[in-house]
Structures are given as structure tokens and as C-alpha cells.
Design brief:
alpha/beta, O-fucosyltransferase 29-like isoform X3, 48% helix, 492 residues, 5-stranded parallel sheet, 20 helices
Length: 492
């Protein structure tokens, strides 16, 4: 205090010392401020680094006993558990009828009877049946249980009643659409002509049905729509989209014999392994012929697939190299195996492989079996119990469908009908892990496989597959077919 008073007195009487003192104080204060700010910035940096690291890895630290089934890619980002989406418990299917969705009209009050002839294999027919119910709703029509295609490549003479539980189908949808097994005899007798047949354009809007189809139905009373697959627009209002989900994920239940055997196979797979992967291999001759791709089999392959390709008169000439570059070629079984191993699945992982006749047979499958020795098919798991189903390709496909839908991880080598339908189902049931290859980017990697070590290849595969692992974030509005991305029917 005394020093301060003295200093003030001296400074008051000496302007030069006063100026020197002020400069000295300001200099010391500036140095102190600089040191203090630097220290604070350094401390904040450490805190930010630590908290940021903890936040970005919170999921990892909260499960210290997890086995190392996570992967990071070269682009960084949150780790991915290859067996299960960490967000799956937050999502669930929600397709209940809204309060303003009117109940189905009675058969007597409907605008007529709608006959539907679904086309293609099991899952193509499934899309047709689903959309047929929605079209019947749009037309205010009574739907006759759809006819299944008996003349496609699969040549299966199964009817609806042989594959799906028909009583459940009719009763479950009773509040949405009136459904009957057949057109009443008295109505058929009153008709002066056979049922009028027409084919609507693909992806037709509801307005097309109201403007072009409804007048014919009102005039004829019975109308048949043929080749009914993907004949309804992808984007509909929310209530019609939810009706699609009620049909596909609830009303279309397989018959009891199919369900029983399918569940038996799931139980047997789980007895062998706590968790397993189901791989849908679309590598049949017809698939490869249709794709226009080439797999290195020389003149023999070109001739065989070329002969099959002649079945489709309207298919254009395609460049196999260009198709592969565009990602339109199904992965080979070997490439599927390499992708899975690169993602982190070990060679003791159990695989259930759903497929028809593989082009090239055992020779084509051998590289996949070497990568995953625990390799099983429905024939191997079911044994003699499969015999009653062997003459019917659609029933065999239904059994595979059940096992694939119940698997811990579902993998496909293409983006065909079964892959889309199952991907949608697994999203609806809580985003179960579903891996579809990013074929466009992976094709270049597979061609350059011998030019890089395994660690580099694995890192690039992981990077390619981000966005193709069945995560909820992939459900962007308007993306892809509704059957694959049923966004209107998924809630959090």
C-alpha cells in the first residue's frame, strides 16, 4: 500500500517516469494476457480432442466385451457392426389403417370383379399380388384371388392356394378390400361375353386406373388384367403405401407345410451356429443370359448363354464389359465370398446358400466353399423332408425365403425381385442386417484384386460398402422401389 502511494506520488510529479511506468505495466499485462489465452486455447484443445474422441466412439466404449466385429473404412466415420445395425431396436414396422381410411365396400356395392394374372417367379408374383389388392381398392372392386403364372421359365403349376394361406389372406384384408375365391356362377351366367382382358402399362398411376380401367370394369362387370407385375406406380399416397405393406408383410402368409419346413431349417441352422448368414445366389443360367454379362467361360459360355438369351426376343445387344462397369452383372460366388471376408466375416461363419441351378455347378461354387467351409443349402439341411417340394420351384423358393428372412445377415449378389422383397421385409422388421453389393464400385476392385495386398483390398471393400449395409440412413425418401424401401411403413 505504501509502495503504491509512493509510486503514485513520484509518478504524479514526474511525467517521464509516469509514461515509462504505464508502458511497462501494459507490456507486462499484454504478455500475461497472451500467456493466459495460449494456455486456455491449449486446454480447450485437449478437452475437445478427448470429448470428441469419446463421443465418436461412445458405442464402442459402452460395449467393452464385444468381439471385434466392427469395421472402419478409409473415409472414417462411425464404426459398423457387420452382424447387426446398432440402430435396429429403434425402428419398427407400422402399417395400421388410418382413421380416415374407409372400410371395404361389400361385394354387392362394388364396381365389379377384378381378375389378376400375376407373372414371373414367386417374388415377381408377390409384387403383382400386393399391387393387385391396392388396384382393387382404387377401383372399388371385388378382387378375385389372383392366378399365378404357370408358363414362365420356372414352369411351376402351383396355384395361390398351394403357396399362400388363402383363408388368412382373405380374412386379414377384409377391412381393406373384398376378396373372393372365384366369380360367382350367377354373375358368369349373366355375362354375354367372356371377361374382358387388358394389359395396363408398367408403373401406371392411380389416375390411369380411374380414367382408363374403371369405365371398362363398370361396363363389363368382370375384368381381367394380364401380365400383372410392377403395373402400379412406385409412389402412392401414404394410406395406399401402408396397404401395400399390410398385404406383403402380413396377409401373404405361406401355407402351413411350407412354414413348418422353413422354420425347421432355421432351427437346424441355429443349432449348428448361434448366428448365420443367408446368401441368395442368383447365378442360374437364365439370370446370366438375361444380364448379358460374361464370366470368362470362353466360346462354350457365349454359346450356351446366347441360346438361352434368344428366349427374349426384345433384348438389346449388350457389351459385357460395359454392363460390368455399370454394376449390372451379378457377382460370382467367389466374389461374394471375397466381399464377405473383406468386410470381416471369418471363415468359420456359417452360410446358408439359397439358389437354383448354379451355372458351372460345383466348379463355380468351390471358391466360395473354400472361403466359407460351413456351407449349407436347403437340400443339405432338409434331407428327405424336401422331396414333396422338389417338383415345385415356387414352393422351394418360399422355403428359401423363410430362412433368408430369419437369418442374422442376408446377402445378395444382385438386385432382383427376391433381393428387393427380402430387403424391404427385413427393413420393416427392424432393419436386420442386409448387405447388397455396390457392384459398380466393387467390379473395378475385383478386376484389380491381384494388384493390391489383402489389407488394402479389404479397406477399399469396406469403403465401397458404406451405404449398402442395410442401415436406416439408407431409407431416403424416393429412393428405389417401394418394395425394397418401404419408408411409409417404418416408424421410430
Amino acid at each position: 500500500m505504501k509502495f503504491w502511494m509512493y509510486s503514485c506520488g513520484v509518478l504524479a510529479n514526474n511525467p517521464q517516469k509516469q509514461q515509462h511506468f504505464l508502458f511497462s505495466c501494459c507490456s507486462r499485462r499484454l504478455i500475461s494476457c497472451t500467456k493466459f489465452c495460449g494456455f486456455m486455447l491449449f486446454a480447450l484443445g485437449l478437452i475437445s480432442l478427448f470429448t470428441g474422441h469419446v463421443a465418436s466412439n461412445l458405442e464402442w466404449y459402452s460395449h467393452p466385451l464385444l468381439k471385434p466385429s466392427w469395421f472402419y473404412n478409409q473415409d472414417g466415420g462411425a464404426p459398423i457392426d457387420i452382424w447387426k445395425s446398432r440402430y435396429s431396436a429403434s425402428y419398427f414396422g407400422c402399417s395400421e389403417r388410418g382413421p380416415r381410411f374407409a372400410s371395404a365396400v361389400s361385394v354387392r356395392s362394388s364396381n365389379g370383379y377384378l381378375l389378376i394374372a400375376a407373372s414371373g417367379g414367386l417374388n415377381q408374383q408377390r409384387t403383382g399380388i400386393t399391387d393387385a389388392v391396392v388396384v382393387a381398392r382404387i377401383l372399388n372392386a371385388t378382387l378375385v384371388v389372383p392366378e399365378l403364372d404357370h408358363h414362365s421359365f420356372w414352369k411351376d403349376d402351383s396355384d395361390f392356394v398351394n403357396i399362400f394361406d388363402i383363408k388368412w389372406f382373405i380374412s386379414y384384408l377384409a377391412k381393406d378390400v373384398s376378396i373372393v375365391k372365384r366369380v360367382p356362377v350367377k354373375v358368369m351366367k349373366l355375362m354375354q361375353k367372356p371377361p374382358y382382358t387388358m394389359r395396363v402399362p408398367r408403373k401406371s398411376e392411380p389416375e390411369y386406373y380411374s380414367d382408363q380401367v374403371l369405365p371398362v370394369l363398370l361396363r363389363r362387370r368382370v375384368l381381367q388384367l394380364t401380365k400383372f407385375d410392377y403395373r402400379l406406380a412406385n409412389d402412392l399416397d401414404e394410406e395406399l403405401q401402408k396397404l401395400r405393406c399390410r398385404v406383403n408383410y402380413h396377409a401373404l402368409k405361406f401355407t402351413k407345410p411350407i412354414r413348418n419346413l422353413g422354420q425347421k431349417l432355421v432351427v437346424r441352422m441355429r443349432k449348428m451356429a448361434r448366428r448365420f448368414i443367408a446368401v441368395h445366389l442368383r447365378f442360374e443360367p437364365d439370370m446370366l443370359a438375361f444380364s448379358g454379362c460374361y464370366y470368362g467361360g470362353g466360346d462354350k459360355e457365349r454359346y450356351e448363354l446366347g441360346e438361352i438369351r434368344k428366349r427374349w426376343a426384345t433384348l438389346p445387344e449388350l457389351s459385357p464389359d460395359e454392363e460390368r462397369t455399370r454394376g449390372r452383372c451379378p457377382l460370382t460366388p467367389h466374389e461374394v465370398g471375397l466381399m464377405l471376408r473383406a468386410l470381416g466375416f471369418k471363415n468359420d461363419t456359417y452360410l446358408y446358400v439359397a439358389s437354383g441351378e448354379i451355372y458351372g455347378g460345383e466348379k463355380t461354387l468351390q471358391p466360395l466353399k473354400e472361403l466359407f467351409p460351413n456351407f449349407y443349402t436347403k437340400e443339405m439341411v432338409a434331407g428327405d423332408e424336401l422331396k414333396p417340394f422338389l417338383p415345385y420351384s415356387s414352393r422351394l423358393a418360399a422355403i428359401d425365403y423363410i430362412v433368408c428372412d430369419e437369418s442374422d445377415v442376408f446377402v445378395t449378389n444382385n438386385n432382383g425381385n427376391m433381393a428387393k422383397i427380402l430387403a424391404g421385409s427385413r427393413r420393416y422388421m427392424g432393419h436386420k442386417r442386409t448387405i447388397r453389393p455396390n457392384a459398380k464400385r466393387l467390379s473395378a476392385l475385383f478386376m484389380a484384386r491381384n494388384k493390391m495386398d489383402w489389407e488394402t483390398f479389404s479397406g477399399k471393400v469396406k469403403s465401397c460398402q458404406r451405404g449398402y449395409m442395410g442401415e436406416p440412413e439408407e431409407m431416403r425418401p424416393g429412393r428405389g422401389e417401394f418394395h425394397e424401401f418401404p419408408s411409409s411403413c417404418i416408424c421410430t
